[in-house]
Amino acid sequence: MKLNFPNLKEQFLKGTLGLTLISIALGFILGALVLLVAGFNPLEAYWVILKGIFSRPKYVSYVIIYATPLIVTGLSVAFAMRTGLFNIGAEGQFIVGAIVAAAAGYFFKLPVGLHAAVAILLAMTAAACWGGLAGYIKARFGVHEVISTIMLNWIALYLSNFVVTLESFGRQGTGKTYAIQKTAYIDILGHWKRSKAGIAFLREHPVLWDVLKSPVNMGFIFAILLAILVWYILNKTTLGYELRAVGFNPDAAEAGGINVKRSMVISMAISGALGGAAGAFQVLGVSHRIAKLAAMEGYGFDGIAVSLIGNNSGAGSVFAGLLFGALKYGGSKIQDAMQAPTEVINIMVGTIILFVAMPKLIRLILTFKGRGGKS
Amino acid sequence: MEAILKDLGFLIGTTLMYSTPLIFTSLGGVITERSGVVNIGLEGMMFFGAFVGAAAAYFTQDPWIGFFCAGLAGALLGLIHAVACVSFAAEQIVSGIAINFLGPGIALFLSRMLFDGATQTLTVPNKIPLPLSFLFGEGKLFPSAGVMDLIFNRFATVYLAFFLVWLVWFVLYKTKIGMRLQAVGEHPEAADTLGISVYRIRYSAVIMSGFFAGMGGAAMSIAVVSRFSNTLISGHGFIALAAMIFGKWRPQGALLACLLFGGAKGFEIFLGAKGVPIPSSILAMLPYILTIVILVSFVGKTTAPAAIGKIFDKSGK
């Protein structure tokens, strides 16, 4: 037994999962400390958050709705990260996807299902170009993708604000566009739940009714499918192998006959398409329109956090996205319930990322404890 | 002629005003990155500085105390970044991202605690002063609202920013400590063998960059405007970061890039005031497009410090 124990611990520490879980725990501890210092009961606050996530079916659906765009932007960042590129531009790609999805949803007249599919594909294509542009600028001119994507984020934001003012698209004076056609909606049972038969049925089934009160939509299912797709491309295809090889060591990849420049463009294009998909799901499933942006909404930046906490993997992004979505939604409730600032969530997320960045520190703490135990 | 001069004066004046917060933050970027530590957390440091600056200026009624506290607030986040990156070999970009969550998180948390649950502060009683205002007005050296007034009657932070550009340039290129900083950023192992403490220099540089970014935030919240709000910084730190790279990691280059961004903002306001029928969002987009075009056509391969982002471990692991 005594011999096995250190081995187990070593196993746990070698894997990134263990380090991530410890980082998350430390994030919660620090969040509790911050609340405590500010004069709130952290246990009460966490209880409120927990209840705010799980105590009603509606809350759970809201968590999923909050998590969906974060999972997909997380996938976008993760894909680029695995191929050695840092995509700060998921924010702008999200915006471009949202613009295109809102336009396709409003201007096109297509049957149900096809309409949404066309809108999503167009949004992903446009955002792929947006992301691919950053890849191309890096490959061709050597401009770092962090700089070009920061610029492209702002261009996208102002483009969105410009589009909203267009007479044929924006409702004048409201700062919003017209709502997309109902045929482009991706909400689940949306038509039925508002019909007479639907309302009659739902009165008999309160749990389902509660779930459907929120704008539940297909976005989450699409997000899972995209996560599987990302995993498949990266791990099971030649393309994915090449892209990862470039991320791991561009010089070696080049020597091995891989076209590094082409890989950069493809990688950023796929990453961009994912960011655009997130924007499309948000518009088609939740907001149904776009509105003037006073500032960055942060979906792309939150995606960076999701990707980092999820160890830049498909499955990791899903779990980290759900965690982040749950904290964001549940955390918003401590404001009303006990006047505790909801921003404690940002502090927690920041702390988690900080510790994720420092595996050396965590290993040090644990080995120190281990030594203390022995003596 | 008088009207054209006045327009020009207005344009230059607003450019100076809007460039200033970027200049402070961008200089911070130069200092840390020349020592070899990437600091993408400038945004979070600027955000935190903007809040602390406004809050301290509100409670003490003294803008300069606010300004100094803002620097300290940024430096505190700089310390966290330094501990992570220098002592614990953290991935520098990841740590910077963490700072970008922590800075706004702590700022808004404190804002809600101190200002009745609001995510903005109250208006500060005294903004950063206009040091040259005694020169302008009736019976003074220059008439008020004339071209000299429009250009030179600016907040003290504007003059301080320009002075700091010179100071950072001087320290970086003309002093021993600056040479050491550059050596650490270019080749830490060689610097280490020459007896330069890589850790100490990097710690100082990262903390100093936080101090500059914090001042940049306050230059926004207690000079350009007179309070902090949660959308006030919204990406300015990232623009300052881009300006630093745009300026090829040199203080004078960063200054020019910041003036470009500030100038575009000034131009947008100018055309808006003139009622020119170009949509403001298209105008607002221009500096970012211009940056990409300039980077693509003139700058080419960027010339980052050689050891940037690389972890230095004295034990050679």
* Average pLDDT level of chain A: 90
Summarize the main sheet of chain A. 2 strands, antiparallel
Element string of chain A (H = helix, E = strand):
HHHHHHHEEHHHHHHHHHHHH
β-strand amount of chain B:
under 5%
Return the CATH architecture of chain B: Orthogonal Bundle
Q: Please give the share of residues in helix of chain B.
A: over 70%
User: What is the CA-atom radius of gyration of chain A, in angstroms?
Assistant: 22 Å
What distance separates the N and C termini of chain B? 68 Å
Radius of gyration of chain B: 20 Å
Low-confidence stretches of chain B: none
Measured between the Cα atoms of the first and last residue of chain A, the distance is 18 Å
Description of the structure:
The complex is a heterodimer of chains A (375) and B (317). Chain A is built from 19 helices and 2 strands. The two termini of chain A are 18 Å apart. Chain A is mostly helical and 375 residues long. In chain A, strand 1 and strand 2 (176-177) form a beta hairpin. Chain B has helices spanning 2-34, 42-60, 63-87, 92-114, 147-152, 156-174, 176-186, 188-193, 198-224, 236-246, 251-274, 280-299. In chain B, helix 1 (2-34) packs across helix 6 and helix 3 packs antiparallel against helix 4. The longest helix of chain B has 33 residues, at 2-34. The N and C termini of chain B lie far apart (68 Å). Classes of the chains: A mainly alpha (375), B mainly alpha (317). The interface between A and B is large, with 49 and 49 residues.
Keyword list:
heterodimer; A: 375 residues; two-stranded antiparallel sheet; globular; B: 317 residues; mainly alpha; ABC transporter involved in vitamin B12 uptake, BtuC; 12 helices; 71% helix
Concise overview:
Chain A is an all-alpha fold and 375 residues long. Chain A is built from 19 helices and two strands. The model of chain A has no long low-confidence stretch (mean pLDDT 90).
